[in-house]
Amino acid sequence: PPIISIRSLSKTYANGFKALDDVTFDIEEGEILALLGPNGAGKTTLISIICGMTNPSVGSVTVAGHDVVTEFRKTRGEIGLVPQELTTDMFETVFNTVSFSRGLNGKKANPALIDQILRDLSLFDKRNNALRELSGGMKRRVLIAKALSHEPRILFLDEPTAGVDVALRKDMWQLVERLRKTGVTIILTTHYIEEAQEIADRIGVIDKGRLLLVENKDALMRKL
Ligand code: ADP
Ligand code: ADP
């Protein structure tokens, strides 16, 4: 079965603005899906609903078979969300930041696992450094490590390379390719077609709240 099922999903905000309009599709476990669309298309709204932070107006979403509204405690644990910016204490160490994040998600401490995540993200050498001592690229890796700390099956990357220079962007792309091997399902939002092309197995194009298409990348590229 798909790990995420989205059915006839619409979202109208309190001011009457319709940010999502009748979206239906499935996401398979282990795939990398890029949600491609211009600013304001509804990508963040869609992710926010899947993560249980915003309620749908119409329709439903299930994560690992559980409804995101009525069973959000179950669905939340399956999800790691990578925001664009670090907002935690910049004087805390890398290890403590990631370990604390696991605790916040209700999981028992597991220093060996945290160290493994840091190794996978090439952060192990910096484990005892304060966040303020890290480069921009390293800080972005810490955000991913935090999101992986409670062993989610799904990882959301919100505009992972927005405002990032070319070198850091390539670095992120390689990182996602490495994460694929861990079996985690990855969903990223982007407005760069090159990024979707580079990273994703499947691309969903969203515009004005509508899912225009969702297709295997190679099939899509042949049409463009
Ligand atoms: P994207 O992530 O693709 O840029 P968003 O999901 O953030 O798109 O936003 C989609 C549209 O919904 C935008 O026009 C935005 O202004 C609007 N929007 C987002 N949040 C709210 C809100 N809380 N109230 C009203 N409109 C909103
Ligand atoms: P270093 O300390 O290795 O010089 P920087 O912290 O200056 O690294 O970041 C390297 C590059 O990444 C710079 O071009 C910077 O503009 C960019 N960058 C750093 N942090 C962010 C961020 N949070 N969002 C977008 N770009 C960033």
TrEMBL record:
Does the record carry Transcription as a key word?
Answer: no
What are the alphabetically sorted keywords of the record? ATP-binding, Nucleotide-binding, Transport
Q: Which GO-annotated molecular functions does the record name? A: ATP binding; ATP hydrolysis activity
Name all ABC transporter domain ranges.
4-224
Which domain of life, per UniProt?
A: Bacteria
* Presence of keyword Membrane: no
The UniProt similarity line reads: Belongs to the ABC transporter superfamily.
Name of this protein:
ABC transporter ATP-binding protein
Counting on the full-length protein, the chain here runs from 2 to 225 of 308
